[in-house]
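User: Need the bound-state model for zinc ion:
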Amino acid sequence: MSKVLSVKCPHCKKEFDYYSSEFRPFCCERCKMVDLGLWMSESYTVPIKKTPEELEFDEFEIPQEDLNFFREDDEEH
Ligand SMILES: [Zn+2]
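Assistant: Bound-state model below.
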């Protein structure tokens, strides 16, 4: 008996065969974990949403004043 039922994963909206997924109604373990809020395992990587300002600060660790200085300097050349 093989049934095929194409459904869309509630999490990632990817179409998959409902009966072939162990993690239905999700397409995969990842989506199930995310949806259930169990996304804590370190075996999964979640991109952390940051604003551009926060990213800049984390990457360079330079005070905004100094960043502005460097930029201005760059533009003059
Ligand atoms: Zn999914």
